Structure formats: C-alpha cells, structure tokens
Amino acid sequence: MAVLVETSLGTIVFDLYCEEKPRTCMNFIKLCKMKHFNFCLFHCVQKNLVAQSGDPSGTGRGGWSFFRYLYGEQAKFFDAEKKPKISHSRKGLISMVDNGAGQHGSQFFITLSDDLNYLDDKHTVFGYVAEGIDFIHKINEVYCDKDGRPFRNVRIHHTFVLDDPFVDIKRIDYPSSPALMNISALDTRLEEDEELDNTEELSPTRLEELKAEEEIKTHTQLLTLIGDLPNADVKPPNNVLFVCKLNPVTTSEDLEIIFSRFGEIKSCEVIRDKRTNASLQYAFIEFEKEADCEDAYFKMDKVVIDDRRIHVDFSQSVAREWQLYRKDKFVPGQHKIVPKHSESGDAKHHHPPRLSEGHTDKRKHIRQNSHSYEHKKKINSPKRRCSPPLLGEGYDLVISEESDSSSSSCSQRKSKKTHTGSLGAKQAGNACTTYV
User: Fold this and answer.
1) Is 181 domain-assigned?
2) Residues 313 and 367 in one domain
3) Which residue intervals define the domain RRM in the entry (predicted)?
4) Residue 256 CA, distance from chain mean position
5) Would you tell me the crossing angle of helices 290-300 and 252-259 to the nearest 10 degrees?
6) Less crowded by CB within 10 Å, the N or C end of the chain?
7) Who has greater pLDDT, 390 or 37?
8) Average pLDDT, the chain
9) How many CB atoms lie within 10 A of CB 283?
10) Where residue 311 sits, what CATH number does that domain have?
C-alpha cells in the first residue's frame, strides 16, 4: 500500500488509503506498474496550493485510467469514490483530479498548503506523502510562468510499488522499465541537468575572467586532493598583514611598536633564516580586530622604516590554518620521524661523557668525534707532531648551562691532551715543539 516515486527534486513515498478508497488506489498502483507516470511532468504548480501531474502529454488535458487497458475507451475514466469523505485539511495529501464530470483518470495533485477544504466536493483524497517532505518545500519554490508551468521542468523519473494488496490481472502484461527517452527533444524548457548559456552576451574580458575562476577552482581542488591544502574552502585570515622590503636590522619589537598605534596586536614576527637567524626582510602582523588591520593597510604602505620603504598588503598565507589542521588530522605524505636507538654494547658509537645527574636534560651536543685506535696512532706520530695541530682538534665541544661542570670537563680533557702530547715529544727526542 505504498509507492516510491523518484522525481527530479528528490524521492518521495506515498502511503495510500486502500481500505477507504480501494478503487482509486487500485487505479493508481496498477498505473505505476504499467510505468504510466514515467517521465510525466508536474505541468501545473500553484504556490501554496497544489502541484499537479499524471498526464503523459504534459498539457493537463490527457491521461486515462487503468481500466482502459481492461475495457477499452469506454473505461477511460471511472467514477469518483465520494465516501468516506477525506478532507484536504493539510499539505502533503494526494488527490485525484476531477475531469469535470465527477470522474477520474490518471492525473493527480499534491497539496502544498493546509486547510484546502473547498477542494473536497470535486477531488478525491486517496493518500499522503509519508517520506520526502522536502520535495513539497522545493516544488513550492520553483519559478513558473503565468499558467503555472515551471520554467525548469520537474519530472517523475520512475515509480516503484512497494506493497500491492490487489491481485494482478493475468491478461495484463506489465512492462519492464522503459528505455531512457531523449526528453530534451520533446520539450524546449530546461531540464534538471541543463544550464542557461549566457556566454554569447558576455564580453571577451568577462569570458577570460570566468575561465580564470574555473581554473582557480580546479587547481584548488587538485591541491586539496594531494594534501597541500586542508580543504578547498580555506581562506587566509582577514586580520593579518604582510610586510616586506624591510631593513635587515628591523626587529619584531620595532614593528610591533610602530603598528600598535592602529590597535591591539596579537602577534608580530619578522621571519628569519632557521640556520643563520638572519632576517628574511618580511614579517606578518596579526591584529585583534579586522578594522584595525584595514586601517594599518591603508596608512602604512610605502612608509619608510629604518631607511627602507616598506610594502604592506593583506596576508595570503594559510600556513597557520594548515598547521592547526595538521595537529588534528593526518596529512597525506606526512611521516613520523622515529629516532634510531643504538644497540647496547656497540663499540662503534662513543657517547660524550655524561654530566652529573640532574643536568643531563640541559645538555646539548654540538659536535661529537669518535676516534679509533688507528686514528690515535696518526695523531701521536712524529710526522704529525711536527706541524701545529688545528685549534680544537681532538676535543669534544659540549655546551651546558652549568658552567662549573662544563669548565671542569674541558679542563680534564685539556690535561689529558697535554700529557699525551708531552709524552710523544719525549719519545721523539724533542725534535719539534708540541702545541696544546
């Protein structure tokens, strides 16, 4: 007792009053099985009133009942079932269209508003919309001409009978789903998958702009797919300024003091090289309010700071948004760096001497040299001692916040080196001076 209807505006499910209106419901269900409603238009839509369909010709003057297949043209219409009376009291009700003589064929309508009781005398309610109420809101908002015909066609694509309480008549051959028709050749109005071609009225400049916009959309989607952007709709913040052409001596504190007169600043950073810490001569300034950011943009462009005429523009960087995205989600192509741990007892790796307990977390290694037995022989050889060693050769440099521990460690190493050098000099018969 239910029928699923696929339309160009969505899918809806009709529940039918088969017990109250058996003849009308049988007519509708069997017509659905005959694929009578496939490709039918909603040829008349009256806002906040009704949406009418069921005519294969799309004119509102056609259609016939299922009984025509049984008894011929004399049964093209059948008499309306007036009792029991079901009122058009709410939207979403399904009712048969009267042909003017108290009879029905195949045309039906869906109510788009409540309290349409004045339709009770002519039309017969036989069901209601059980699912897909969004369809009613969508079709109620379509644009129509003065006759109620939508400018963009709204069609029934397919009907599926979910439950049929009526016995099928054996002499009727119910067809399979018909092949897809070229409905655009039958009607000059726009279909659901068609768009107006307005390019003929546009100037060449506007056409180039539209083409560029489409290319930007395509590139944005591509960058999103390969993981260079968190999503296609990401946009740079409106409260961040980009400042370039700075003097290398200009610092973040200097810029913050200069730009703070326009409003409160959340952050100000001169970008520097990670290795040398030298200024890259550009910066980002984030304001608390967008209005302050706009004010600074208009007043600070081409201003001289530290003998350099700077350039100010709105930031186009989404680096901060990308970093926030990476914290929450895994980014394609991103790999975690897992530190390698040396095996215990490996003679090839010599770690620098440990500091006392409590200071190991503060230590930072700058360079670590490992010397094998053969390398030590070269250092102590007479030929090697004849030339002054390089400054710092043979030492491990360790930086620590504890100056006493660092000084003690370096002194012990220096004493050890001096002893080794002196011993080598004595063995060579004081042939040359040893530098330590």
Assistant:
1) yes
2) no
3) 239-317
4) 35
5) 100
6) C
7) 37
8) 77
9) 24
10) 3.30.70.330
